[in-house]
Amino acid sequence: MKRLLILSATLAAAGLLTACNTAPAPAANTHDADVKAIQDNEAQWVKDYASKDAAKLAGHYADDAVLITPGASTATGKDAITKMLTAMVADPALDITFQSSKVDVASSGDLGYSQGTYTIALTDPQTKKVIHDHGSYVTDYRKQADGSWKAVADIASSEVPLSAPANPAKKH
Q1: Count of CA atoms in the C-beta half-sphere (13 A) of 92
Q2: pLDDT beyond 70 at 28
Q3: Who is most buried in 8, 67, 96, 170, counting CB within 10 A?
Q4: What is the mean pLDDT of residues 47-61?
Q5: What DSSP string runs through the chain?
Q6: In this predicted structure, what is the pLDDT of residue 1?
Q7: Domains and CATH numbers, the chain
Q8: Please, which residues bridge with residue 115 across strands?
Q9: Contact 137, 116 (CB under 8 A)
């Protein structure tokens, strides 16, 4: 009886040690689904710009996001981004579209990015004339607890050359 008890205890201990040393099951590979989710998000984002709904547009950003656009101050945080977007969509000339040429997600599955091109028409605040711009963008995404993807850094770079100031200062 004593031998049976010792044998049982030894087998139980060996079983526990074996269970503690097993590698965790590999996480499911969601790369392709995550890339598609970001692509779908950007397609919806373009539609939200067409609707000129600042709240929907701001919903694409994480609370701690940063938005950097040509000719504007950096907007940091969702409140500042919402304020910038509200002013932007109030412009009757606003027409923006963008298309990614590359989307990828880290193997960890929690960070991703897109890069592509954009075109925009909007009213110049100084001249009150409609200007047309185009360029490139990079948007970094972070996967949220609910599985959605939110932009954490959205940066656009214009390809349109800067125009000379109306009254350049004379050099001596």
Answers
A1: 2
A2: yes
A3: 67
A4: 97
A5: -HHHHHHHHHHHHHHHHHHHHSPPPPPP--HHHHHHHHHHHHHHHHHHHHHT-HHHHHTTEEEEEEEE-TTSPPEESHHHHHHHHHHHHT-TT-EEEEEEEEEEE-TTSSEEEEEEEEEEEEE-TTT--EEEEEEEEEEEEEE-TTS-EEEEEEEEEE-SPPPPPSSPPPP-
A6: 52
A7: 31-158 (3.10.450.50)
A8: 102, 138
A9: yes
